[in-house]
Amino acid sequence: MPADEIPVPQEPADALAAVVALRRLADQLEDAAVEQAMRAGWGWPQVAEALGVTRQAVHKKHAKRLIAAGVTLRRRQ
Fold first, then answer.
1. Which residues, including other chains, have CB under 8 Å from residue 39's CB and lie 6 or more apart?
2. Per-residue confidence in pLDDT tens, the chain, 77 aa
3. What string of DSSP letters covers 6-52?
4. How far is CA 33 from CA 24, 41, 44, 58, 69, in A?
5. What is the 8-class DSSP label of residue 25?
6. Is 71 helix (H, G, I), strand (E, B) or coil?
7. Which of 20, 42, 48, 73 could form a disulfide with 37 if both were Cys (CB 3.0 to 4.6 A apart)?
């Protein structure tokens, strides 16, 4: 959908609140998807490639949370 076709609320506060809500939802979806992938045996490089980021970036963002959730993380080969 081109940017000029995206419905934007008339009130700036409403539009910005929608942005915040979408970012939170995207973060929650990413957290769940990364955890699912790691539980399925994916490695950091696979997850990073799927997200379009570096292995280091995805590890830094998710490793502590995954360890706390009891996910067994694969070691580099």
1. 71
2. 676 788 888 999 999 999 999 999 999 999 999 999 999 999 999 999 999 999 999 999 999 999 999 998 877 65
3. S---SSHHHHHHHHHHHHHHHHHHHHHHHHHHHHTT--HHHHHHHHT
4. 14, 13, 13, 12, 14
5. H
6. coil
7. 42
